[in-house]
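Need residues for this backbone.
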């Protein structure tokens, strides 16, 4: 099996193409692919002749033998054919050119530098890998490593030196993948990608993909998303179309970009309908100016600006042509002058190519004057792709202008026009100067403008129809809003029939209907059960105590007399805790309910009653403990209390008790946060929660002894400025950018960094540069962690490692990395240099964010019980009580004891527990002044 550079390059772009080349499959033809091949061949011939002409005949060689390279006397050789036996396959290449450098001293080998010719002005990673392949084969032939090579490319024959030894591992890995591919007798899984437009197998592969209804037909779907769907058993576009379900858009996310739904795109294709998501907006208040720019990306040269002003038959088309790069300034100036002549121009384009055009032209040439018509229209230009993306789903496999316009009915004069074909036409015109090539480009550009006009008018009609559906007719009979689709099917789907009698029969067969309407009339026991179930539950039972209060003589608020009063009797239902258990406790109170005419306040009701109820503090404490600490639902907590103590508590009462408890302990949470802000360190983290009808974020702030939770509608960092105002300590957090905006010393969680580095290392197992960076950091952090294990978080013992940190960064800055992944790792370390080792300069500052993450786990347990069932107001109440609960845990006190104590300051309660005798019981006695009567 022979692996050549052609197969190597084909595999880099598409494994299927590589397999088809080896199998000898007939090529369907592609004008651009044939042109690229011709250009590479022509450039190689020209560059070879140029090189050989600059070298004397006796020092150059054409297609020399590779058998005795070390003894040859030439300094420059062209078309050197080399092979390397790598069982069970052979690597073979015809190296474009090789430069021979004599040895610099005795014992040092002669150096050979492979040279690769590329006709493009810009290079990608594949060209460097092809050069590295040549260097690898040449190394195997010579018996020693070839570490460098050259790429000569572009119109100016620019020279790029490449360190091939740094990417040899990638070459070897790709060679192994090619060998594994070619050893398989069957065609690999067909996957359409961006290279298809340049492939000679484009027609064949696309036809096969359409026959299979393959997911890769959806151009906007990434390989990762496609593999994830494959793992779920979804392999076709039709299968994917059945998975879409409408989702309600949260209010706080309305201003953010809508998520793109591949399943809805598949549904639009299956049903041949346009689907709308959300409320897309398009306003053209002025004269529409449709813009399409043609250029040569390889040369950063814009040679044609198409401008279509107005709509329909009255539209005026301008085609601004540049013969050479020197004319680019002229057509830019002409374009600005045209804009100045249009009344209220509204620039409309499709995609980011024109956006880049505006930026580069303004930087390279003169920008339009501030406040001019041109600058206003350019800064407010409308990108139609941004308007339609994730909002309007056309039944086309891609979101390209030509495919959408073609579906809308636009007719193109040429056969399958494309951007790659326009590049061929322009380069051929540069070479030959034939008039018909220029005319083709002008027609192609003007038709793009006309197609853009059709799309813009269609989208405008759709948007107007959404705003005023009654006054404007639907732009198409096959336009539908995604919200109109049925929601997700349940386990027991609703029975639906066009015959009314069948629906009536099905309804009569339901369990609830028969039990409530039929069986209850037949069975007396069911009737008694129903009556008992519907009766109001009233707490009953033995009265343990009774207290009588005398009528108050003066108002306790203003100290005046003259109140009106009436006698009242209330029964307090509470719980009494003993050392080994808890029992129900009922007390009857006889008192006078009074009203003061001076201060207009009511008084006289015993303080043992929880406000607005006939329950005591211990009942509320146990309910809150069950809901917050044990994560029981409010219904389950009420049922539990009624089963054990016969208190007659309803679900609604549990809710109101939770609300009132949250109001009381809001002051406690604020005191916890104030105590944290005055401290030397705060851990911070955030997590998402889905609520009833919307989603939001829960932020947690923690120290060694306190935890505070807060709800926010967004993940923006404004909440940090609001809650942590005045904090001057160290903020320990993850790498979320919002924390960087807070003005205080910061320590980033190194555990997050370690996990990220480990994932990077696993994804790039053969990248020695990445491995070197990660290893150096790991050794550094390991030594620091060992010191922490022995000495604790004390600056006195940790600051000695500052020298080692500086040494790590010096080594990092001095090392030159070729790998893109290694460069990203280096950039991340340098960017966060002042935030990775802050803990070395402070006492008691941790190097990870485990405190906050542990607090997040506590909230996650509660979230499982309430997610989707609460509201922002409700979740805020939960978070108040959870803050108190977790702070009690962190301070080593019992949450239930704190709730029963009547105390509002957790710190004060913790101190009182330390001073209390350990032999003292935990009883909560009901001691009320008054006269006790035995019952």
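Answer:
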């Amino acid at each position: 099996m022979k692996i050549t550079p052609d197969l190597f390059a084909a595999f880099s772009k598409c494994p299927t193409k590589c397999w088809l080349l080896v199998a000898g499959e007939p090529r369907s033809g592609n004008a651009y692919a044939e042109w690229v091949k011709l250009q590479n061949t022509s450039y190689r011939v020209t560059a070879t002749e140029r090189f050989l002409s600059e070298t004397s005949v006796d020092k150059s060689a054409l297609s020399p033998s590779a058998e005795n390279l070390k003894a040859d006397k030439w300094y420059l050789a062209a078309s050197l054919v080399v092979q390397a036996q790598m069982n069970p396959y052979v690597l073979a290449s015809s190296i474009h050119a090789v430069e021979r450098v004599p040895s610099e001293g005795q014992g040092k080998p002669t150096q050979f530098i492979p040279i690769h010719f590329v006709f493009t002005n810009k290079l990608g990673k594949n060209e460097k890998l092809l050069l590295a392949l040549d260097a690898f084969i040449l190394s195997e032939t010579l018996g020693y490593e070839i570490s460098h090579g050259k790429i000569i490319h572009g119109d100016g024959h620019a020279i790029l030196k490449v360190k091939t030894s740094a990417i040899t591992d990638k070459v070897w890995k790709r060679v192994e993948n090619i060998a594994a591919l070619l050893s398989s007798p069957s065609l690999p899984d067909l996957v359409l990608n961006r290279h298809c437009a340049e492939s000679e197998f484009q027609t064949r592969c696309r036809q096969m993909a359409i026959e299979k209804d393959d997911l890769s037909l959806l151009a906007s779907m990434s390989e990762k998303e496609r593999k994830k769907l494959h793992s779920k058993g979804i392999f076709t576009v039709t299968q994917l179309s059945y998975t879409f379900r409408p989702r309600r858009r949260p209010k706080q996310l309305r201003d953010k970009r809508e998520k793109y739904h591949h399943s809805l795109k598949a549904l639009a294709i299956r049903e041949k309908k346009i689907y709308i998501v959300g409320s897309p907006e398009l306003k053209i208040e002025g004269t529409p100016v449709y813009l399409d720019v043609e250029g040569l990306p390889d040369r950063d040269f814009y040679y044609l600006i198409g401008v279509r002003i107005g709509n329909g038959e009255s539209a005026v088309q301008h085609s601004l042509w540049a013969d050479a790069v020197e004319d680019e300034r002229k057509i830019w100036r002409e374009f600005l002058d045209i804009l100045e002549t249009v009344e209220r121009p509204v620039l409309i384009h499709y995609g980011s190519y024109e956006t880049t055009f505006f930026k580069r032209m303004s930087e390279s040439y003169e920008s339009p004057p501030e406040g001019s018509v041109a600058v206003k229209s350019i800064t407010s230009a409308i990108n139609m792709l941004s308007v339609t993306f994730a909002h309007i789903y056309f039944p086309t496999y891609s979101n390209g202008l030509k495919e959408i316009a073609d579906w809308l009915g636009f007719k193109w004069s040429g056969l399958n026009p494309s951007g790659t074909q326009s590049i061929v036409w322009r380069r051929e015109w540069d070479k030959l100067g034939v008039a018909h090539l220029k005319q083709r480009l002008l027609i192609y550009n003007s038709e793009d403008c006309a197609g853009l006009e059709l799309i813009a008018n269609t989208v405008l009609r759709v948007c107007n129809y959404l705003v005023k559906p009654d006054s404007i007719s639907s732009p198409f009979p096959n336009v539908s809003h995604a919200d109109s689709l049925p929601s997700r099917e349940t386990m027991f789907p609703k029975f639906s029939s066009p015959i009314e009698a069948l629906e009536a029969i099905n309804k009569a067969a339901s369990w609830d209907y028969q039990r409530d309407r039929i069986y209850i009339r037949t069975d007396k026991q069911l009737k008694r059960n129903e009556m008992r179930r519907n009766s109001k539950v009233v707490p009953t039972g033995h009265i343990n105590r009774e207290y009588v209060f005398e009528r108050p003589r003066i108002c306790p608020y203003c100290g005046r007399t003259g109140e009106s009063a009436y006698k009242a009797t209330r029964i307090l239902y509470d719980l009494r805790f003993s050392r080994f258990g808890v029992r129900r406790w009922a007390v009857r109170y006889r008192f006078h309910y009074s009203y003061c005419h001076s201060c207009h306040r009511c008084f006289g009701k015993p303080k043992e009653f929880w406000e607005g109820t006939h329950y005591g503090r211990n009942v509320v404490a146990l309910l809150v403990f069950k809901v917050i600490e044990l994560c029981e639902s409010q219904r389950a907590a009420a049922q539990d209390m009624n089963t054990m103590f016969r208190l007659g508590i309803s679900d609604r009462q549990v809710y109101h008790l939770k609300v009132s408890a949250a109001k009381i302990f809001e002051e406690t949470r604020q005191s916890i946060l104030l105590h944290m802000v005055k401290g030397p360190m705060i851990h911070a983290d955030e997590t998402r929660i889905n609520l009833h009808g919307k989603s939001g974020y829960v932020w947690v702030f923690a120290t060694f002894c306190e935890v505070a939770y807060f709800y926010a509608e967004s993940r923006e960092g404004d909440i940090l400025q609001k809650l942590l105002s005045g904090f001057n300590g160290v903020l320990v957090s993850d790498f979320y950018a919002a924390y960087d905006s807070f003005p205080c010393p910061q320590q980033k969680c190194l555990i997050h960094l370690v996990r990220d580095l480990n994932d990077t290392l696993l994804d790039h197992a053969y990248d020695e540069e990445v491995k070197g960076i990660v290893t150096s950091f790991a050794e550094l952090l390991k030594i620091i962690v060992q010191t922490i294990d022995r000495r604790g978080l004390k600056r006195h013992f940790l600051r000695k490692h500052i020298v080692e940190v500086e040494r790590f960064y010096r080594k990092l800055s001095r090392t030159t990395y070729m790998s893109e992944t290694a460069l990203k790792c280096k950039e991340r370390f340098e960017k966060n240099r002042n935030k990775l080792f802050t803990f070395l300069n402070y006492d008691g500052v941790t190097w990870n964010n485990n405190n906050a993450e542990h607090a997040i786990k506590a909230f996650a347990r509660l979230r499982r019980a309430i997610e989707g069932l609460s509201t922002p107001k409700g979740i805020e109440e939960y978070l108040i009580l959870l803050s108190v609960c977790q702070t009690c845990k962190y301070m080593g006190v019992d949450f239930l004891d704190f709730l029963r104590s009547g105390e509002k300051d957790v710190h004060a309660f913790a101190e009182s527990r330390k001073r209390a005798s350990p032999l003292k019981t935990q009883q909560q006695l009901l001691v009320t002044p008054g006269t006790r009567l035995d019952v």
